[in-house]
Model the fold of this input.
Amino acid sequence: MRKVTERIPFLFLIFLSVLVYPSLCYYLDSSCYGTANYTTNSTFQRNLNQVFLNLTTNAPLTGFYAATAGEGTDQAAYGLVLCRGDDPDYVCRSCSSDAASQIVSRCPGVRAAVIWLDGCLLRYEDSNFIGTIATSLRFSMPQSGNNSNPGLFGRQLGQLMANLSSSVTGSASNLRFATGEIVFQGSQKIYGMAQCTRDITMSNCTSCLANVVTEIPTCCSGRNGGIVYTVNCGVRYEVFPFTLQPGTTASPNGDRTTNGSSAAPNGTSSSSSSLRRSIIITLSILVPSAFLLVGAAYLLLWKRKAGSHNETKGDGEIEDIESLIFSLGSIKSATNNFSEANKLGEGGFGPVYKGILPGGKEVAVKRLARSSGQGITESKNEVHLVAKLQHRNLVRLLGCCLEGSEQLLVYEFVQNQSLDKILFDPLKRVQLDWTTRVKIIYGIARGLLYLHEDSRLKIIHRDLKASNVLLDTEMNPKISDFGTAKLVTIDQTHWDTSMIAGTYGYMAPEYAMRGQFSVKSDVFSFGVLLLEILSGQKNNFSHESLFSQDLLCYTWRLWRESKTIELMDQTLGESYEANEASRFIQIGLLCVQEDAVHRPTMSSVVVMLSSSSMPLPTPFPPALLMDKSTSETETVTSVSVPGKGEPNGSQPSSADGTTCSRLDAHKS
Done:
């Protein structure tokens, strides 16, 4: 019984990892266009609540649903939900539920409204709009980055949009959804998505897409990305993959399928068999039931053994749980017995090796050093957290092994290793052109947003830095190293700890000084990393001036003197637009505010990065966190905080009439 009991928690976590998928459902826009209001507890409100229930229950089955409730003028309610065609049913369920909740709070009492989230749109009215076209209800949003060759970019984008429109309205496309890609220049590509609601005719879908495509030059001319949506259709394009699979297209049976080719240039769609659809439907029924059964078993068995075991388990138990995934022999074989030739680098907790599993799959094996600060507790923490996380901007955990004295974590192999190896190398960082840096910044932001808000957990990373961001072959960023991450409760705003762990120079001052951490702690780290990516300099660099100062204080001085462009990495040349670069620098300064209250959330950061027109707040002077006895970028695995009072003191550091606060972190 003890072995069964010990295995249940880890099996439960593995099962959860199947259910958890990134719900990219952050808010985009909304319109409360009703000319009249309804009253609380009115017949219309009750009917509207029934419509919301029908939509959120049925939309996940097919990705689209229209519903009505009640009869009579001023009483009946009508609504529809459209989910993005590449998202699984549980993402659609989450997004439609979020949309229903948000539209009520954003449009209280309004009898007609629409809301667009990144993963879905929801619309309701007090009159029957199903099957009709409403061209006036729309929104558009330019994305970050200016393209280097607007003429060629525009021509290729036009071709991609034509291909996608043809694919969406093709006779084989019941989903009314298609994605694709097209080569822009060299190895650069443009990725696109187009979709229509399924209540309108095919000819109206064609007209709707043609209409939104013609708005792209108006809203997004010269930009690397853009979104244009009405209540009936929409398009989006980026210079990086943003859908589940760039080659996902609609299948004849109306389900989601992925093929190896893209919709561009031919815009062709692929079919899937009825067997596959039957399997999906069956799993959609069995998986929730199995989830409840496993959850019940987990709680029952865990409660039964809680009285006889401490919260921190011994080595034997952890070994037994984790060895369900990989054996030590298989990992030794994959890494050639941890040979130097297979060594990828040295992390804060030990070396990382490249391995090749039987069948040719490449993996990265994190071998925790016996003397590292990451012991059994941290290893278990990393497995428990990362096994639940699935996002394109997070490194995926494949498994683990804890046998004997070995503690091994097995991750997906990311080809270009860590960002710091390229960014801080004077020769290699020429690979990071402006478009690539924007993609990296945006990807990191999206990964953090998922951790903070979009996953079914709430995770604070606590050690975000350049060496913990890996780059794949397409230079897409993936946040890694969750050994110090914390799973926290949703309804709290901040937490205290007597032991801090992370890296000086990236730590928020309230965390380094008082052990207080929150999602705003990660925002601070992101701000430091953003400024490093823009400048190509480490935070603890000494600029050639009358005094030495860190990157934050130097950036603040340049911003106050309206010389922010001097911060930019000279290897970028003139590939960026000065206004856009200055905007990114200001966002970085907003993230590193000394007071956490003044820092934006990651959802706000993503919106600010995506929009060139949104006004930005004026930043206050940033915190300058330094430790006189420790390098600003030294990893701290476990440091005791000497009390919970205010910081020991601050020493103003003059910067040509401006001030950066100098906070000295204490170590035991």
